Amino acid sequence: MKKNDYKYDLGVIGCGRMSGAIILELRKYKIIISDIDKQAFLIFEDKKNITQTSNNQEVVANAKYILIAVKPQLVKEALAGLDFSGKILISIMAGVSISSLKDMAKGAKGIVRVMPNINAIIGKSTNAVCFDGLTKSEEKFVWKLVNSFGLSVEISEDKMDIFTGLAGSGPAFVFKFIRGMIMAGIECGLSEEVAAQFVAKTLVGSAENIDIDTEDEFDTPLKGIRFWIDAVCSPNGTTIEGVKYLDQMNFEDIVKEAVLRSKKRSEELSKK
């Protein structure tokens, strides 16, 4: 069966928070979704491009490209008995390797691992992608799909665990940082709403100052970040006092360790 013969552009098995955010961004595509929890369908009720079912085989039979978005520990059960002959599997599950997916999805023509993050809900996810067994035209379709909800880059599978720690888990670390700053504003008399606005705008502006294109002013992004830290820290000023405390508490090492622990957990899931 050719791609144009399928009833849907994409099938989705598992409609949790992450896949739900992705599905809502894919407005140009006809999609069939499946989940054992009918409550998961509520956010799609008014979406005419989305068909709902509780039958995973119906999803697989009616689309060439199948997004697998169940919890990693449930994937074997979710895929059991399904016929993936000629299909392309797209997995957003942390720690589930391409080789494991091949074992579980018998007959699959190709596998794609995608690691998005929760910012997909506003179309600003950072996505790592790696391919196995796809033609150029199939890869092109997947690129269009993943670029619909963010910025996508291709990496080798052995780098997927560190990407998971940095960009997959990273938003939670950033949100913790934001929460701490908002709490400081509230403690000093600002309303929660005003403090949140100040912090969010500060964070966005600061992030945009990072010189990712190192051909310009700075040799490397880290040198650029060091420049901006020094630019804000006037001698004997206000900022330097806060930065001294962060350095005293080994703030950067704490953040690095949080990323590495998330990476380690991704590796553990792969082994399981």
Please tell me about this protein's structure.
The structure is a single chain. With about 270 residues, the chain is of the alpha/beta class. Helix content is about 45%, strand content about 15%. It is built from eleven helices and eight strands. The protein has an eight-stranded mixed β-sheet, with helices on both faces. Strand 5, helix 4 and strand 6 form a beta-alpha-beta unit.
Question: What gap, in angstroms, lies between the N and C termini?
Answer: 35 Å
Regions with little confidence, pLDDT below 50 for 5+ residues: none
Strand content: 5-15%
Largest sheet, spatial ordering of strands: 3-2-1-4-5-6-7-8
How would a crystallographer describe the biggest sheet?
8 strands, mixed
N-to-C series of helices and strands: EHEEHEHEHEEHEHHHHHH
- Mean pLDDT across all residues, rounded? 92
Global structural class:
alpha/beta
Number of strands: 8
| Helix fraction by DSSP (H/I, runs of at least 4) | 40-55%
Based on the structure, what is the oligomeric state of the protein chains?
single chain
Shape: elongated
SS element count, helices: 11
Computed over alpha carbons, the radius of gyration is 22 Å
